[in-house]
Every structure is written in structure tokens, then in C-alpha cells.
Amino acid sequence: MTTRDLGAAVVAFTLPSGILVGDTVYMASRNIEPMKIVGYHLPTQKVTSVATGSGLTSQALGADPAGRYLYVGVDHERAGHHNLYRLDLTDPTGPIEDLAEIEGLNIIALTVSPDGQVFFCGTEKSPKVYQYDPVTRKVTDFGSPDPLATMGRAIVATESTVFYGSGSVLSGGGDASRAEVFAVDRATGAVASITPPEIAAAPVVRDLQIIGDQLAVGTQGSPTPAPFAFVDLDDYSSVTVVDTSGTSAKLFREHDDRVYFVGLTGIGVHTPSTGAVEEIKVPGIGDPVRRTELWRLDPKQSSSGFAGLAVLGRHLYAMGNKGQLFVIDRHSRAIVHTADHKSIVPDLSTLLVHRGHVYGASRTTLYRIDRKTFEITALVTGLAGKWYGIPRICVDERGRFYVLRDRNLIQVAIPHQG
Any idea which of 140-149, 216-225, 282-291, 390-399 has the lowest mean pLDDT? Predict the structure, then answer.
């Protein structure tokens, strides 16, 4: 087996954030230097602008009510590096305008209130709520509603109140806080916890959105199915809880009297008038021609979902997002093999079939699954591939494989096995 480093490469222009402004979606890139802010015009389905940003990536985009400015929050990489800037959309190709530097803050959530004020939060010691005033060009620090949290993960604002969602990464550990929702009075700075008790077991608040006269609250990372909640903006004690079968709920959007949201395994639809929740997911194999589901199987041993699927002969190979391998007999629909390969597949992975074998790639390893014993053999280790979405693997017409090592594209020639 031989490997060849082909140099810097990107297999996917990953987009960690996006926002619709008028008829154009603006998106920020990830792990591309320098970062790009791309405008995609929906009516013409064309990229209409590309601006060079600052920083490695951005999960935090927000537009002012007039659609004039796009605000961007990024990590604070070094002294002198601004982690809040904006792009004038009258010329969306740039340049960007630096606005503020908050030392030690990695901005991961940003919103613009109806009166044009910018609020943001993120990861730092004792995460705080910040406001940027475009008129005075000053930053106000509202302090930390929950000093024991490891991150401020969600934020949304009205003309009078900032709603802030916090929690802890990987459940925090030790004394770290879990999911909390706070209301911050913009005039006085007074802080009040309005956390619905039904969501308090989750590690972190994942999303906050104002829908009509209610605040939609979604969480992520709960070990059990997590509900989301609607909090009445006029009476925080008035809460409507919506049960789901998933462990996360985010990206709430209202359309035709229904609320759509994204869960761990697909898209959910909630009808407030009836309380019904429909989850659009198909964890089985289906008939795409007839558009019908043939069967489904829930291997309940995995709570983290699946990223890798491959079919070889009568077997369906499913790689869980934490290294759990399941092999399913498609004829009997029985699980015929399970194994834990977290040392090789620490999180996400993809699979493909080539010349009668199943191959896979994680962010650390290129591997092969034996079609008889289902054992895994590590072929190339130490990849440490950068995050461009789910780890990728492909093979060309000559049988050479391609994966990422750091940011470089690696070509791997594997001797054919019968």
C-alpha cells in the first residue's frame, strides 16, 4: 500500500451558517483561509457575490432590519484581531468593516433586534451577553447570567428584552451548568431565569426563536428524548411543551400555521392548533421509484444516529456516529453483527463499496471491513482531517482512494484483495 500527499485540497465548501436577506442567502465558509462570505441569489440560482472575511469560520450571522448590513461574529484568534465585523450589502463583495474586538470571546450566536441593535454571545470564561450599538459604535457588556455555563449558545432579542440560552459542552462535567434560558432587560440590565423545567435536563439550549408572541426554545444533547417549549412573551410562566422522539430541536421556522424544526434524525413539523408532531425520517431502506418505505429497523443500541451506510451482497452496513458498527441481513432484517470501533471511528464516518469490500473513513483513519468476519482493519492512521463536514472518502476508476490528512488530499493505492 502506498500513499501520496497531493497538497492542500477542499472536498466540500462547508457552510456552518447562513441567513436569508431579501432574495439572497449569505453563507460563511469553514476551514478555508481566508474565510469567504458567499451570496447565493435564489431566483437565478447563481452565486452573485464572494467577499473575503476575517477568521477561520463563522456560526454567527445576522442582518439589520433594513437589509443593509450583514453582521459576522468569529473566534478571537489573537490580540488585535476583531471578532465582530460587518459587510455592507450594497457592495457584498467587500471589503468588510471591523467593529469590535472582545478578547477571549469566540462568538457562536448573534442576532439583530427589530431596532437594529446587535446582540451576541459565545464561549469564554463565564460567558456574557454583549450588545453592539451601530449608532454609538460601542459594545455594552451585560455580564454573565450564568457564570458556571461553558457557553452562550443561542440569543434573540426584542426591542425591550434579550433572550439568552446557555449550557455546557459535553454536559459540562463538574459544576458546569445545564440548559438555561434567561431574559435580560435591555434598559436596566436585570436578569431573570425563565427556564422551562421540562428542558432543564438537557446539556445546552441549542436555539431560540421568536415566533409570533412566543419564544421557541430548543435543546441539544439530552440523553433521552427532549421536548421543546414555547414561552409566552407576556407571561414567562405560561409554557407550552412539545414532546418529540429526538434528542435535539433547533432552527425553528413558522409557515402556514405550522412550526418546522430540525432534529437529530430529520425535520419535524409541529401543528400548534392540534399539538401534533410529525417527524420526517426514514431509518430503513426504501423504494425511490414507488416512493414507498419497504421496512424500517431501529437498532436501539445507538442513540447518536448514523452517518455511514453501505450495501454489499445481502448485508447493510451501518456505522454509528460514535463508532458502533451494525451489520443487518437485508433478507431477514435481523442484526447479524455489532461491534464498538470508537478507537478508529471516534465520531462521524462514511462508507463505500469497492471491488467486493466495504471501506470507510473517519477523521482519523482509512479502514476496511472484512465481508466475512466483519472485523475492521486500519489501513491509514493519523489522518487528523480538518472539519469540512462528515469525513469523506472516494475512489477513482483506477481503484485509488482519496481522503484528507489535515487539509491535504491524500491518495492511497491499496493492493486488490480477492
Answer: 282-291
Domains of the chain: 2-280 (2.120.10.80), 304-413 (2.120.10.80)
Tell me the three cell numbers of residue 285. Answer: 431502506
Point out which residues pair with 326 in neighbouring strands.
318, 338
pLDDT tens-digit series, residues 206-236: 999 999 999 999 998 877 777 899 999 999 9
Q: Are 294 and 287 in contact (CB under 8 A)?
A: yes
Give pTM, 2 decimals.
0.73
Residue 233 C-beta-side C-alpha neighbours within 13 Å: 18
Q: How many CB atoms lie within 10 A of CB 384?
A: 11
260/162: higher pLDDT: 162
Strand 84-88 vs strand 69-73: parallel, antiparallel, or unpaired? antiparallel
Report pLDDT for 282: 44
